Amino acid sequence: MILCITHAQDTFTIDRVQQRLEELGYEGFRFNTDEFGTKYRLRYRLHASGPQYELRCGTRTIDARQIKGVWYRKMWDLQIPPSLDPTFVPAFLKEYRNSLHIFLDALKVPWINRMDTDHAVGANKLLQLNAARAAGLIVPQTLFSNHAEDAVRFFDDHGGNVVVKLHGALSKTMDGKGSFFPTTRLRKEDVPMLESLSACPMILQEYIPKERELRIIYIDGEFFTGSLRAPELADWRTANTTLVQWEPYELPPAAKDRVHVLMTALGLPFGAIDMIVKPNGEHVFLEVNPQGEWGMLEKYLDFPIAATIAEKLVNRIEQHG
Question: What is the DSSP string of 198-235?
């Protein structure tokens, strides 16, 4: 059995991966993490022979020893029972999160991706940029600061060709719906607002002229790359979706080699890498999202991403023995 960690609103991608797992002879059990406190139960028992961890959903009980591999797709915020007294919400969240991690930490099996590594890399874009440069990739000049004078100096040093963004995304979706602060081109009239950095540190980067934007899906050495010619915006998700049309793109072998070195160094079998192709053909690394979206590439470009995730995980399980 393979545990597929996701959330209740996830569609398309989870179904495709589970379908391929079944074709390969492995049952995929969908675990909606947002429903853990409302529809699942965890049991831990310490026997003379060792600990026993069980996950229950309805009438079904899964022993941790049955799980041969884990696909870590998404971790979602816990649903809070509407009848729960607000006074007990902090305790509810704390104890259920602890219980969830106790269960997941017990799974000493192959993962794509391991949760601790996934979170560590996803939460540190500066680590990513440094590792990308060490792997031979071109990265933008970057400043992360809460100091207005630093930001103004950076803006001036780059002739006003600067973008600004949050270190962490507010939106969990690829379409930018909901709370969302897009990567934004900084204008001269915006500079006085940099005084507010003391309330919220932000990333400033040199603006990179772009011929194309790339979303590269890396799966254990395999590459699937979609490209688009978005309007001249710093963040394509702010564009009218009718203007955004994905096209297949063949990443040059040298860029593939460097991305492979990067992902190996970061310890990530899977990741969604964002890059820019400059008018002169140079490829510039922006970031890697260990839980990045890829359904649009499978849907519109017919890339076999879901099947490859399933196959790579099964390969790891069988090599693990």
Answer: GGS-EEEEE----SEEEEEEEETTEEEEEEE---S-SS
